[in-house]
User: Fold this.
Amino acid sequence: MTAQTDTTEGGMRAWLTAETPRSRGQARLGRVYLGWLAFARNRLAMIGLGIVLLLVLMAALAPLLAPYDPYTQDLSQRLLPPSAAHWLGTDAFGRDILSRILYGSRLTLMIVALVAVTAPVAGLLIGTVAGYLGGWVDAVLMRVTDIFLAFPKLILALAFVSALGPGIENAIIAIAITSWPPYARIARAETITIRKSDFISAARLQGASTPRIILGHVVPLCSSSLIVRVTLDMAGIILTAAGLGFLGLGAQPPAPEWGAMIATGRQYVLEQWWVATMPGIAIFVVSLGFNLLGDGLRDVLDPKGQ
Amino acid sequence: MPGRRHAIRGAGLLVSVALTVLGLLLVTFLIGRVVPIDPVIAVVGDRVSADTYARVRQELGLDLPLWQQFLRYVGDVLQGDFGTSVLTSRPVLEDILRVFPATLELATAALVVGVLLGIPAGVMAAVHRGRWPDHLIRVIGLIGHSIPVFWLGLMALLVFYARLDWAPGPGRVDVFYEGLVDPVTGIITVDALLAGESDVFWSALHHLVLPAGILGLYSVAYIARMTRSFMLDQLRQEYITTARVKGMSEARVIWRHALGNIAVPLTTVVALSYASLLEGSVLTETVFAWPGLGLYITNSLLSADMNAVLGGTLVVGAVFIGLNLLSDLLYRLLDPRAR
Assistant:
């Protein structure tokens, strides 16, 4: 009975930090809470989290926040400098740059989300299968991984886009195809350290099938180091996507993709500097946000990296 | 039997490199096959009789099974035949040899920037671990990792060329000097020195500063981070304590003893960052109108010149593999413990 009164008196905090949790759920939530405390102490990581949340909000509320339509051209308003009517100025077609950046956050978020969902999952499956099965499967899969790692990422993405044709979907596919190998390497290394563990043997002796062991026992244990890596890679994904857009191989006009916006502002950069400058600042702030967030997550989830 | 073990390890390395190169060829071959451009029509146009079409198709070997086509492709590439560029109507290899020195010049200059800034920064961060120089260098590294290189290049042109007039505009040399020195190596700064044209040399060097500086910043972060972690490992060692106890000056302990001992792993780091600079040069070259391999690949891409794109990809990939191999070999050669 005493334990019962303790939890109610200390409230949520005491329940979360209890020395002896009474359920698996409480233990799990407690660990998340402690991790969050460590993370929240890192000021830079909190700034990163703030930026990323802001990006999500911007993307979700773009139609409400944007003062103008991002596509409507008005040639009488072209290349206006930043002012009260157009905070970030207008581009060569008289479109409001602020509105375009706000709508562009949707494209950025979409690219990041799609790559972050596909590439790590592919890498995780390839890596865990290679690490768990070993033998020739491992040799073949790792050789393929090495070949992809031997290519410079951007060049390989360029070659894929050239084959598939320019466009945002193909840019996402190309980035995903070039991003999975490091995840496969990490997942394989983690799998090798746990595949000989007793609990894996126990699961096998209970008659669990290989796919069940890999998906149910190995994959979850490899996830946390992969999450850190994915967050740290987000900035790189954003920069690659923007680079493809800048080269005219990613999102096509009139889509308000930030890299493509810089490309169209390029010819005016010496006189109407704001056209190319503003989307660049947006890319910079968002990538910095993901980098800070990833850096903080690494400190929390992987203390040996310090 | 150390000699024999060496031979076996060397052979293993060779086989793995050969397999990687073969994989590289397979990837470019497959990319070339999925392109929605009909290679026959690309050669003869779309207004030919079915007979001609079939004949050209046979000449190009497109009627063969895929694996035979691949063997043919490998054979061609190994003989230096990358096909003909549609854009320049010259052999792709010839084009690449012409533009590659410009990229080499840019990447090498950028590497010099990266090494000269990155190593001291990393050493400072390690020595002042946890204090403000360490944090400052970490934050600068994070910022460097977050700025799009093409945008930074544009901003640098805007500020240093258009506003302050400190730097020359895009290109490798002032228009006035263009074509004044014979291309011997293709690297303008070296060619100008060989020809004794100091004006051209200074103009070329002047043009190099901005793009190489921007590109170099990207390797600074990586080199500094690696230097920091290697240095931290060394500074924990007992010989450092001994040296300090002996009364050796702190500067000598750090710059001579500790840094001297990480020279070998640093060499491999530098070799690897050279490879990533080649990649980064694609976007930098576009911004600065630098006529190198990166600009060649992107221009070919925009005009759907597949032979040129794949040839360029292959060359960059091969250089990448070569630099990885080099860093591996350097490590084994220089570090007595790895022998």
